[in-house]
Design brief:
80 residues, alpha+beta, 49% helix
Length: 80
C-alpha cells in the first residue's frame, strides 16, 4: 500500500523528499527493536532504495510524534 501511495503521491507533490517519517506499521517494519532500531520490511526497503530517500520511524508509545506528522499532513493539504 505504501508504494502505491508513493507512486501516485510523489508526482503531485513535485518530487521525492530527502526523508519520510513513518509510523511503525506492518507494511514498513517487521520488528521494532530498542530505541531507533527497526527491522525494516524488505519491500519497503526496496521502495526507499528505488526512490532514494531515508525513512525515519516514530518511537513506540510516543503518540505526540505521530500527532506532529499528521498535523504537517493536514497543513500541507490546506496549502494545496
Amino acid at each position: 500500500m505504501a508504494s502505491f501511495a508513493h507512486y501516485h503521491g510523489l508526482p503531485v507533490l513535485g518530487g521525492v523528499p530527502r526523508r519520510g517519517i513513518y509510523d511503525n506499521m506492518r507494511t514498513t517494519v517487521d520488528r521494532v527493536g530498542r530505541g531507533k532500531t527497526r527491522q525494516v520490511n524488505a519491500r519497503f526497503l526496496a521502495m526507499t532504495s528505488h526512490y532514494l530517500f531515508d525513512a525515519e520511524f516514530c518511537n513506540p508509545a510516543s503518540g505526540w510524534e505521530k500527532g506532529q506528522v499528521e498535523k504537517n499532513v493536514r497543513d500541507a493539504r490546506h496549502r494545496l
